[in-house]
Amino acid sequence: LGQMGMPMATNILKKGFALRVFDINKNSVNSLVELGATGCKDPKEVAIGADFVITMLPNGKLVNNVVFGTDGFISSLSKEALYIDMSTINPYESDEIRKGVEALGKQMMECPVGRTSADAITGTLLLLAGGTKAQIEKAHDVLMCMGNQIIDADGPGMGIRLKIVNNFMSIALNSLSAEAAVLCESMGL
Questions:
Q1: How far is CA 131 from CA 9, 56, 95, 112, 142, in A?
Q2: pTM for the complete prediction?
Q3: Per residue, what are the HEC states of 96-134?
Q4: Which residues pair with 110 in a beta bridge?
C-alpha cells in the first residue's frame, strides 16, 4: 500500500469491490479502512474467502515471503481464487513463485503496470497481463479498476518480461534524451 498500491487499492474500493488489506505500514491500512476496506492482521487473513489476492511489492523476496512465508497467504487461498502479482520483479523469481503456487493446485498470473503514480491515482495504468486467456478474462473487471488498458502479453510469465523490456526502453530513451540535451547545450542551441 505504497506509492502505487495505495491509489490502486483506493480505486478498487471506489468501483464497489469489497477489499481486505494488509501492509506493515499501519497508517496505510488505517487510511483504507477509513474509506471502507477491512484491515487484516497478516497476508493469510487477507486471502480467506477472497476471489482475488493482489500484491504490489518492491522486490521478489518480499513477494515470495507474502505468498509462502510464515504468515503468507498461500495456505488460505482457495483453489478458485486468482492470485495476481502486480509487482515489477525479476522474471525468473516470478516464474518460481508461480510454479510454487501452481504446485499447490492454485492459480497465479502476473500483471505489472506501466505509466506513473499519477496514473495509479486516476486509474489509468497500463496493465501488462501475463496469464492464461481465462485468467485475464476472470481478472478483467478488477484490473480495470486500476487501469484503462490491458495488454495480453500472451501467457504466464510474459507480462513481467514485457514490463522489463518496457523499462529498458524507457531508460534508454531517457539516456538518449539527456545526451541530446547536452549536445544541444554544447552547440549553443
A1: 21, 17, 12, 11, 15
A2: 0.93
A3: HHHHHHHHCCCEEEECCEECCHHHHHHCCEEEEEECCHH
A4: 85, 130
**What percent helix, strand, coil does the chain show, rounded to 5?**
50, 15, 35
5-33 CB burial, b ≥16 within 10 A, e <16: bbbbbbbbbeeebebbbbbeeeebbebbe
Angle, helices 158-186/91-103, rounded to nearest 10 degrees? 170
Which is more confidently placed, 174 or 137? Answer: 137
Joined together, the cell numbers standing for residue 101 give 503456487
Residue with cell 496514473: 119
Reading the block at residue 173, the C-alpha cell is 530513451
Contacts with 162 (C-beta within 8 Å, 6 or more apart), sequence order:
112, 128, 130, 151, 153
* Structure confidence at residue 128 (pLDDT): 98
Place of cell 481464487: 81
| Mean pLDDT value across residues 174-181 | 89
How is residue 120 written as a grid cell?
495509479
**Known catalytic residues?**
163
The CB density around residue 154, as the number of other CB atoms within 10 Å, is 14
Three-class secondary structure of residue 1 per DSSP? coil
